[in-house]
Design brief:
With about 250 residues, the chain is α+β, with helices and mostly antiparallel strands. The chain has six helices and 14 strands. It has two domains: about 130 residues, OB fold (Dihydrolipoamide Acetyltransferase, E2P) (Beta Barrel), CATH 2.40.50.200; about 110 residues, OB fold (Dihydrolipoamide Acetyltransferase, E2P) (Beta Barrel), CATH 2.40.50.140. Strands 8, 9, 10, 11, 12, 13 and 14 form a seven-stranded mixed beta sheet that branches. A five-stranded antiparallel beta sheet has the order 4-3-2-5-6, with no helix packed on it. Strand 8, helix 5 and strand 9 form a beta-alpha-beta unit.
């Protein structure tokens, strides 16, 4: 599976710099982080990826984003240096939910599951750790648009795509729908379709992730058919790519 090539912790980058300059000893900061991580037992991303469905998994990961907290549960978009995780309805108090900010590293234990092609962690619990988070930059997947096999290798990653065209959807040629079938209203999930000139894909602004008062929600409401846009988000899967979009810019 492809990995986040741009995802490096501060400590890893420091170690790389030392290697370049021929220094063998770790810095105190790097050693401290290594020691902190060693306190926890968890799978590498490779081990998680190879684990069978419906088995218990434990991962050490950095929070990228969260959906809104509800009834002692929260859904988390997370990553480590080698891949990304979608943690669905993780047990969480309201007080702890407020602390799950981007960059926070948590130890998550749950069960690896799959729903309509989306590989996720369910029935999860977590604990906060003192391990530094990884720095996460979007992976440019523009060249992989329309290639489901290539995109599957990046499932749940934070990504960016450029130069996509907004297509008309529905009988009246709308630029977006409220809910997948246009049965909703403002505040519901937004659905819109984009194309690279050869293939099309449905994108979603998940209202529990980015609600009606956010820039991305309002940007999609302002789209016109034919607009060329740059988008970023998390590569969620539902019977194929169905990214959860967090940013839209008209080029």
């Amino acid at each position: 599976m492809k990995t986040f090539k741009k995802v490096l912790s501060v400590a890893v980058m420091a170690a790389m710099a030392l290697s370049v300059f021929g220094c063998a000893a770790q810095t105190e900061e790097t050693a401290a982080e290594t020691e902190a991580a060693a306190e926890y037992e968890y799978m590498s991303y490779e081990e998680y990826d190879a684990a069978a469905l419906d088995t218990e998994v434990t991962v050490l990961c950095t929070v990228m984003d969260t959906q809104s907290w509800w009834e002692d549960q929260i859904t988390v978009y997370a990553a480590d240096a080698d891949g990304a995780y979608f943690i669905y309805n993780m047990a969480c108090s309201e007080e702890d939910a407020a602390l799950l900010t981007p960059g926070t590293t948590i130890l998550v234990t749950g069960f690896k599951s799959e729903w309509e092609g989306e590989v996720e962690i369910i029935d999860a619990t977590f604990e906060f750790t003192d391990v530094d988070g990884v720095a996460i930059a979007p992976v440019d997947l523009t060249a992989d648009f329309g290639n489901d096999e290539a995109l599957l290798a990046h499932q749940n990653e934070y990504f960016e795509m450029t130069g996509l065209t907004v297509e008309a959807i529905g009988e009246n040629g709308e630029a977006f729908f409220y809910k997948w079938d246009n049965s909703g209203s403002q505040g519901d999930d937004l659905y819109f379709t984009v194309s690279n000139g050869e293939t099309s894909c449905n994108f979603t602004v998940e209202s529990y992730l980015r609600g009606a008062d956010t820039d991305v929600y309002q940007a999609v409401e302002g789209l016109n058919v034919g607009d060329t846009i740059t988008v970023s988000g998390y590569l969620y899967w539902y019977q194929g790519p169905n990214p959860h979009i967090i940013s839209v810019t008209v080029e």
